[in-house]
Write a structure and sequence with these properties.
This protein has 25 helices and 24 strands. The protein is an alpha/beta fold and 693 residues long. The chain is globular. The relative contact order is 0.08.
């Protein structure tokens, strides 16, 4: 146990759990993390190993006996008939039967409906009426001759969440931790290993918590697949709901005009839209309009009546292109559905999480340390919604007068949320406050900068702040804030796409070069045939292939022998060559045709999948196929801009070398490796790889 874990157990006894235990007990139970951690918090909230092991077995027994799997629902119902009473863990939803004037519950996994629920239970837990809540319930079976009566009787129902917590005790315990320790504790609480994250990356992860502690907070995160964008919103809190698929109706989200029933925003603290990106998604224009009003004014109209709600809105989706590609050809919102690709809608977004900065989740990134039982932290964050920390920076800093009211609101809400998460007790230093303020400004600036690319009517804003002189309180030196993409790709970042459209206002920034780092001119390429001797050195893919790959948008590699690890590594180095010889803001598709390994085909596919995941963020779309004809022998590379490179040995041109020696130059640089005897032929073709005819 680390010193931090010991400290956590000392100051939060009974409120923390070892995070690796969730995987240990989950098995094939399809239940949210907060349900499992609720049970673990009852029996395993300790650092005593024997108690933990006993608690694990207890939780497993509870899940075995009481969690209802859909495939055994019939057996459970039969047991209930025999025993007359049974305790179950299931997702319960409630509807009002207006014909009988009663509330009726439906158990999702158990598959039973029309279970009578008293109005007091519904009044106490209104979320039962919307999408359902995970509960521990006692059910009774009483058969009746009345065909209209259900034999199922609900005896007790308890939502799986903490019944109470000590907020003052939480604040007092927070004072015992430094800011670094506290950030690590929070990261462990959401299941991540803090050692795998830098300071900025930790802040990015914690931004995802703000919708739970800040009312009416609008957040968007777009980035590559597999970065854990939706995990927090589906698993972290019983007060949030994740809408899969990104499609939802106006009645479900806001209000049903026919019944008067309020939608999701009236019952949940956070409503998240998963898979929000995708230009082909069908979107109701009326939904976009009502969302714009709600996100700006915290209210929506139902006929002549205006209703208010506090739910935060989160939009998460995947990007298909690299950042430099999007900046050169469109903007950072380009993946959104057309109806949501609306400057008025996007202007309501308070913070844009740069999803491309978030690492793809790997096994070593999960924590096995101690963190809060997530339900406890969820309740703490919910109670913080009643507080406002947005003015905590004004003692030390003031925002530039150039920043509009809407920009200012976005910055203030993000800053308030970060302060609630990191400094709920106060105690932040001037340096801490400045760090959070700069990060808050950057997230809103990312939104506004893209809006200026989309809509030429938006004027340029100077995102800056002033440090107050400590002695006088007067404005000190102006401090500008830049996004990380702005510093990395200055040439294409300020290109105004909208200005290229007819009738759009001109913008002198559009004339700036769009390529951030132009490649040097390619050497003159010629057809020819080259022969190399065994043990010859000084050769590399960069020298042999690089000039002929430059400028290609599609590259097809045919090589039947990309099977074994060293062969796959050769191909990875080929992809490195492709990356080196393409512009940062362009993308290249590389397709491999090979044969499947008869004995280690699964391992071969796993290697390809890893390469695919690694290549995508750097602008290479790698795909592969297995030739099943048994006639594939030729080895060559074909580009769509007119070159065919024939290789008698394929990419296997180097003699054996020690791959695991990080200090050997043969491992690091190809030109120091002795090669095998091989030949290479360069053939000029027509564009798109078609032989001239």
């Amino acid at each position: 146990m680390t010193p931090l874990d010991q400290k956590i157990n000392t100051h939060f006894p009974g409120l923390v759990v070892r995070k690796d235990l969730v995987k240990t007990v989950k098995g094939n139970a399809i239940v949210p993390t907060y349900v499992l951690e609720y049970l673990l918090g009852q029996y395993c909230a300790t650092n005593d190993e024997p108690t933990i092991q006993t608690g694990i077995e207890t939780v497993r027994e509870i899940l075995r006996k009481h969690y209802v799997h859909r495939n055994v629902a019939g057996l459970v119902r039969s047991n209930m008939k025999v025993k007359g009473r049974y305790k179950v863990i299931d997702k319960v939803s409630v509807d009002l039967n207006d014909k009988k004037d009663v509330y009726e519950a439906q158990f999702a996994n158990l598959g039973i409906k029309q279970v009578l629920v008293d109005s007091g239970t519904v009044k106490k837990h209104p979320k039962l009426l919307v999408s359902g809540v995970w509960c521990i319930a006692d059910l009774e079976y009483e058969f009746t001759e009345d065909k209209n009566a259900s034999p199922w009787v609900l005896s007790t129902l308890k939502p799986i969440q903490l019944s109470h917590f000590d907020f003052d005790g939480y604040l007092e315990a927070r004072k015992q931790f430094s800011i670094d320790e506290w950030m690590d504790l929070l990261l462990q609480s959401i299941g991540l290993n803090p050692e795998m994250f830098g300071r900025r990356s930790k802040l990015t992860q914690l931004i995802r918590l703000i919708p739970f502690c800040e009312r009416n907070y609008n957040l968007i995160e777009l980035g590559p697949k597999g970065t854990g964008k939706s995990h927090i919103y589906s698993e972290f809190s019983p007060h949030g709901i994740l809408i899969s698929g990104g499609e939802v109706s106006v009645p479900k989200l806001f209000v049903n005009n026919s019944s008067g029933k309020i939608g999701l925003v009236g019952y949940w603290d956070c409503v998240a839209f998963d898979e929000f990106a995708g230009k082909q998604k069908r979107v109701d224009k009326a939904l976009v309009d009502i969302m714009k009003n709600y996100m700006a004014n915290k209210s929506f109209s139902r006929g002549v009546e205006t209703l208010g709600a506090e739910a935060s809105m989160v939009f998460v989706g995947n990007t298909q292109h690299t950042v430099p590609y999007m900046l050169k050809h469109s903007d950072l919102f380009c993946e959104l559905p057309d109806k949501f690709y609306d400057s008025a809608f996007l202007d309501r977004i308070h913070f844009y999480i740069p999803g491309w900065e978030v690492d793809i989740i790997r096994g070593e990134m999960f924590s096995n340390g101690y963190g809060f039982v997530v339900d406890y932290l969820a309740e703490i964050l919910r109670s913080l919604r009643n507080h406002d920390y947005s003015d905590r920076y004004r003692e030390h800093f003031t925002l530039s007068s150039d920043i509009s009211t809407r920009d200012r609101d976005g910055i203030n809400k993000t800053f308030s949320g970060l302060m609630k998460i990191l400094f709920p007790h106060g105690g932040a230093t001037r340096e801490d406050i400045e760090e959070l303020l700069r990060f808050s400004i950057e997230g809103r600036k990312r939104v506004k900068d893209q809006l200026m690319r989309i809509d030429a009517t938006y004027s340029e804003v100077r995102f800056a702040y002033f440090a107050r002189e400590q002695e006088t309180g007067n404005k000190g030196q102006e401090k500008l804030v830049c996004t990380l993409e702005e510093e990395e790709y200055p040439g294409s970042y300020h290109k105004t796409v909208a200005s290229d459209q007819p009738g759009a206002a001109s913008d002198e920034r559009a004339s700036e070069p769009s390529a951030p780092t132009p490649l040097p001119p390619a050497p003159s390429l010629t057809e020819g045939h080259l022969t190399f001797q065994e043990n010859q050195k000084g050769l590399s893919f960069d020298a042999l292939l690089g000039p002929y790959l430059r400028g290609a948008a599609v590259i097809t590699v045919t090589d039947p022998y990309i099977r074994l690890f060293y062969q796959v590594r050769n191909f990875m180095e080929f992809l490195e060559t492709v990356v080196k010889h393409k512009a940062p803001d362009e993308e290249v598709s590389v397709h491999l045709v090979t044969t499947e390994d008869e004995f280690k085909g699964e391992q071969q596919k796993a290697h390809f999948e890893k390469m695919q995941a690694a290549a995508s963020p750097v602008g290479v779309n790698f795909t592969w196929e297995f030739d099943g004809t048994g006639t594939l022998h030729a080895r060559h590379i074909v580009t769509d801009h007119g070159w065919k490179i024939s290789l008698d040995r394929g990419l296997d041109i180097f003699q054996h070398y020690e791959m695991n020696d990080a200090f050997a130059f043969t491992n690091r640089l190809q030109q120091y490796r002795p090669c095998k005897a091989f030949e290479i032929t360069y053939i000029r073709q027509e564009e798109n790889g078609v032989d001239p005819g």
